[in-house]
Amino acid sequence: MWRGLYTAATGMITESRRTDVIANNLANVNTTGFKKDEAVTSDFEPMLIRRIDDQREKDVTTFKGFSLGNGAPVVGQLGLGSQVSDIVTDYSQGSMQTTGNPMDLAIQGNGFFIIETPQGERYTRDGNFYKSATNRLVTVNGQNVLDDRGRPIDLPPEAVHVTINENGAISADGNPVARLGFVEFAAGRDAVAKEGASLYRAMEGQQPIPGTGSIQQGALERSNTEIVSEMVNMIANYRSYEASSKAVVTQDNLLDKSVNEVGRL
Question: Do 130 and 102 meet the contact criterion of CB atoms below 8 Å apart?
Answer without folding.
Answer: no
